Amino acid sequence: MHASEARDIADHGFTHIAGDPELVGALLAQAGADASAIREMASRPEFAVFVLDFLLELDQRVLDFAAASGIRPERVQMARAVLGGYDPF
């Protein structure tokens, strides 16, 4: 997986989170931030890793996201590895 594909998965993950008020609330609580701070954080490269970590934190989160996105859950973990600087293979 290339870094651009991993970033795309993270971007789709953020869109998925943004569409669910319960997930938005959990993300804000985990970040210790409000919506305006999240918008600022979203411009930072490490935000993609934060989004993927958030999704991967609970099995049901990653399964729901993967199903909604039409990808295998393992792809989310691979994207996290790539963006974290690890070779997933």
Query: Structural class, from secondary structure content?
Result: mainly alpha
Low-confidence stretches: none
Assembly status: single chain
Shape by Cα distribution: globular
What's the pLDDT, averaged over the residues?
A: 88
Strand content: under 5%
- Report the total helices: 6
Report the radius of gyration as a whole number of Å: 12 Å
**Span between N and C termini?**
10 Å
| Main beta sheet strand tally, sense and closure | none
Report the order of strands and helices: HHHHHH
Q: Could you give the count of β-strands? A: 0
Helical coverage, percent range: over 70%
Structure description:
The chain is mostly helical. It has 6 helices and no strands. The longest helix has 16 residues. The mean pLDDT is 88.
Write the layout of secondary structure elements.
Layout: H1 3-18, H2 21-31, H3 35-41, H4 47-56, H5 59-69, H6 73-83
Helix pairs in contact: 1-4, 1-6, 4-6
Features:
89 residues
Short synopsis of the structure:
The chain is an all-alpha fold and 89 residues long. It has helices at 3-18, 21-31, 35-41, 47-56, 59-69, 73-83.
